[in-house]
TrEMBL record:
One Pfam family, short name: HTH_20
Entries under NCBIfam families matching the protein: HTH_metalloreg (NF033788)
Domain HTH arsR-type: start-end pairs: 1-94
Top-level taxon in the UniProt lineage: Bacteria
InterPro entries assigned to the protein according to its UniProt record, in alphabetical order: ArsR-like_HTH, HTH_ArsR_DNA-bd_dom, WH-like_DNA-bd_sf, WH_DNA-bd_sf
Protein name: ArsR family transcriptional regulator
One example GO MF annotation: DNA-binding transcription factor activity
Length: 115
């Protein structure tokens, strides 16, 4: 994985905003029209569309227009790169903590076995 993966940056940016996370939470229950996503936010439609474009750019949401209604759907598999990155970071930190634990146990044993 590249040190600065642009796709990963787009995902973290998209999820950094509580309004976008709320929209994804709603879309996790099923597709919804933009007006339904906008209603609980209290935001104006252009602002909601800007949030949706950030989610689309990250690949988290797809939209389709049917007549005058624009519907949105969540793409949960788009979260996989983030999941993989977090799992990699967890493995790195778990290994570091295991080595620290081994080191502390060695020091304690040396202290107890000392003069």
């Amino acid at each position: 994985m590249a040190k600065h993966d642009p796709d990963l940056s787009l995902l973290f940016h998209a999820l950094s905003d509580p309004t976008r996370r709320m929209m994804l939470g709603r879309l996790a229950r099923g597709p919804a029209p933009v007006t339904e996503l906008a209603a609980p936010t209290g935001l104006r439609l252009p602002t909601v569309l800007r949030h949706l474009s950030v989610l689309e750019e990250a690949g988290l949401v797809t939209t389709q227009k049917d007549g005058r209604v624009r519907s949105c759907a969540f793409v949960p598999q788009a979260l996989q790169p983030m999941h993989d990155w977090l799992a990699e970071q967890r493995a790195i930190w778990d290994a570091r903590l295991d080595r620290l634990d081994d080191y502390v146990m060695t020091l304690m044993k040396e202290r107890n076995d000392g003069p």
